């Protein structure tokens, strides 16, 4: 058995960042930027008015000053002349600043009569000019790696980056194993259950940026597993669920072994999830998750999400932890690291009473995991503990 | 001008929950459950072993007790006989408990010789039985409304719910308006800029559960806007960007007016985003966002995301706020509510120095908005302020 930290370090060595592909900007949200991209123009590309009002050629003005309006500038419609002393150009937000303009007087601060404006008392002191390149300049970079969000998409559009270099989605093949399993929608025998982990994990992996390949449920026979394993070929990562202790044999490891598995570890000192296996078949990383639903989902959070970050070229390491006070006391922990299903509420964290690794109802209600180190003593309510938000 | 709270209340009256559709469970992640769904079976469907070990028919045992192994039970493979006194069945995690079994002795606590096992000293006191229905029972509900996540998908699978009733994705048509705009990838003239808001907003709305229909950029002419507005027909929500003050006219409102717009409000006492318009054209909700990139994205967060929650049948209201100390002082606020771009770091929040509503570089770096009430006085570092996490 190895520690959780050692197991994660070994898992992260199983893969390396995948290839780069260009995607249209409209499809870039959620993808991971793979290379720095540079603005192809200044933004704004010209000095522009920040308000609706009147552009004038001087900065120092007084109440009662009058100006003759000689034209108009709107967004997309530049005023072609030049503003001299005593002149003004009617201007709208976003319009290019006319030649000679030094300041924009907001429209609420003038009285207009025909083509003449007169400044009122106590006018706004701002100049209301957005300087050329004030947001960014040609060559300014959005730096990789970065998981792109809606604001990044808007920024890239504004930089006129229409095709975005991102990591392709790593392909994760998923195999649930077990004679007791049937797919949702089928009619199970009395001694069978529904395969739940594969769909839940597929959703988790897709959210993390992967493409998933859900393979048929494998029976606990060599031939069934061999067929499924062959269908996984070409994936970046193969995730098997269950089968680590079927009867007295670890049939997944046996069959994967005949297909070239180099096994890195097969047990981790943690709850839930002790029977976690990791290795490589050729170029493909392989992780064997425990069959208990909660164990497999928790191990997905702790090990596979960081590995997917690594495939995507992002900084990859242990899930971020926050420190929160306990809402109620906890018993002493065993010698294995324990990831307790919990809820964060009103700034404190509360573990669920029932921590059995088969309880999906509990996991679905949880929004956090409390991390208990090995042999952590009993803790009182109010003591701070480390928490991973889900 | 109306307050932000009044504006949001009016926006939420523009729509109502959309229809329900059935989706395969594999596509249910991120969708909003529309109706309670009931488990079609108990989970586990039988009392099961929680460990690998030996099932016996008694609870009270002592070191040195011996049992004869009469068979085996594995997941998916029930033992068909009955266990009597002095007998044991080899059993594996998840296997149905044989008739007569009262307790499972974990395998580390026995010595096996042929078909006989002998209990060791100081054995584990647990019974290691997962009772039938211990996770959930037939008829137990997953209650709507609920935005489904990976653990919910696993739970629904386990409940054998293969088709899930969810709200269909509300359709949002998006029209950017302005003679100054060209699409990303085109070559703008000197006085033009790239349309950035429509793609950023589309990404935001898709994340919130919508389906987006990006319409062509509309010129500031009645005919161009009329064409685009006609293309929006059938959408649940039409979002226009810009055009609220083109020259001296509000051309979007004018053209929408000829198409039957019942306008609810057109100005909100906030920064950024004062020129925000809302109303309805027939059955379609319409929101006119300001053209400044940051204004449109912030208004999307504050008004359109709650409206999409409402379309999806979720509880809808103001974005959740948290209270955090300021990392640095803030000047007094004006009479308009101010949503300042900011970063949460190390438990404190820091506003960006530059708050102009044209700066996408600042928005892309921000992970939060500081909410300043109207006329909020100057604040010192360390004072707590309300924050919306982005």
Automatic annotation (TrEMBL), chains A, B:
The GO terms this record gives for MF are: metal ion binding; molybdopterin molybdotransferase activity
Record flagged with keyword Electron transport: no
Q: Provide the coiled-coil residue spans.
A: none
Query: What is the name listed in the Swiss-Prot or TrEMBL entry for this protein?
Result: Molybdopterin molybdenumtransferase
Spell out the family assignment given in the record's similarity comment.
Belongs to the MoeA family.
The alphabetical list of record keywords is: Magnesium, Metal-binding, Molybdenum, Molybdenum cofactor biosynthesis, Transferase
Q: Which PANTHER family match?
A: GEPHYRIN, MOLYBDOPTERIN BIOSYNTHESIS PROTEIN
Which InterPro entries does the record cross-reference, listed alphabetically? MoaB/Mog-like_dom_sf, MoaB/Mog_dom, MoeA-like, MoeA_C_domain_IV, MoeA_C_domain_IV_sf, MoeA_linker/N, MoeA_linker/N_sf
EC number of this enzyme: 2.10.1.1
Enumerate the Gene3D superfamilies for this protein: MoaB/Mog-like domain, MoeA, C-terminal, domain IV, Molybdopterin biosynthesis moea protein, domain 2, Molybdopterin biosynthesis moea protein, domain 3
Which NCBIfam families does the entry link to? Glp_gephyrin (NF045515)
Summarizing the function annotation, the protein's role is: Catalyzes the insertion of molybdate into adenylated molybdopterin with the concomitant release of AMP.
Per UniProt, residues of the MoaB/Mog domain are 173-310
């Amino acid at each position: 058995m190895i520690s959780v930290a050692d197991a994660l370090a070994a898992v992260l060595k199983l893969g390396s960042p995948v290839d780069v592909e260009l995607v249209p900007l409209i499809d870039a949200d959620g993808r991971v930027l793979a290379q720095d991209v540079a603005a192809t123009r200044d933004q704004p590309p010209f000095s522009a008015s920040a308000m609706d009002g009147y552009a004038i050629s001087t900065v120092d003005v007084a109440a009662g000053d009058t100006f003759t309006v000689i034209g108009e500038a709107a967004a997309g419609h530049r005023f072609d002349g030049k503003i001299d002393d005593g002149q003004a150009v009617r201007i709208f937000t976003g319009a290019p600043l006319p030649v000679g303009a030094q300041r924009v007087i907001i429209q609420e601060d003038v009285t207009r009569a025909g083509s003449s404006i007169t400044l009122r008392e106590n006018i706004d002191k701002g100049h209301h000019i957005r300087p050329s390149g004030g947001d960014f300049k040609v060559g300014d970079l959005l730096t990789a790696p970065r998981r792109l969000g809606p604001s990044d998409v808007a920024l890239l559009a504004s930089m006129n980056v229409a095709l975005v270099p991102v990591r392709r989605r790593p392909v994760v093949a998923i195999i649930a194993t077990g004679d007791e399993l049937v797919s949702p929608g089928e009619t199970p025998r009395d001694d069978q259950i529904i395969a739940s982990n594969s769909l839940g994990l597929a959703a988790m992996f897709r959210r993390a940026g992967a493409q998933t390949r859900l393979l048929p449920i494998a029976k606990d026979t060599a031939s069934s597993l061999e067929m499924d394993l062959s269908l996984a070929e070409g994936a970046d990562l193969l995730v098997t669920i269950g089968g680590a202790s079927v009867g007295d044999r670890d049939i997944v490891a046996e069959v994967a072994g005949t297909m070239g598995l180099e096994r890195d570890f097969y047990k981790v000192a943690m709850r839930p999830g002790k029977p976690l296996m990791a290795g490589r078949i050729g170029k493909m990383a392989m992780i064997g998750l425990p069959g208990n639903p909660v164990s497999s989902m928790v191990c997905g959070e702790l090990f596979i999400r960081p590995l997917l970050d690594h495939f995507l070229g992002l900084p990859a390491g242990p899930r971020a932890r926050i420190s929160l006070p306990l809402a109620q006391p906890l018993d002493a922990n065993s010698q294995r690291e324990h990831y307790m299903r919990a809820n964060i509420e009103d700034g404190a964290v509360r573990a669920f009473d029932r921590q059995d690794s088969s309880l999906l109802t509990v996991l679905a209600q949880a929004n956090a995991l409390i991390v208990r180190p090995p042999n952590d003593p009993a803790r009182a309510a109010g003591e701070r503990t480390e928490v991973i938000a889900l």
